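As a point of orientation, let us examine one representative protein, giving the amino acid sequence and backbone structure tokens.
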Amino acid sequence: MGRNDASPPTESPYLSPRELAERWRCARSSVDRIARRLGLSRLCLGEGRNGMVRFLREEVEQYEESRRV
């Protein structure tokens, strides 16, 4: 099976805070503040400074849809 035979990668169900900041074109601190205010679910992997946070893509998309005017 060659490289071109593989199916395209599936979209992750999670977004990192950095990806969300790029998506919303805002600061990472703004993402943290908005997510906290909205009560977005977070997946926390690891602990302390080296831990990773991920947000559920589905919740982010629902929030974005609710903000459309």
Observations:
- The chain has one domain: 13-66.
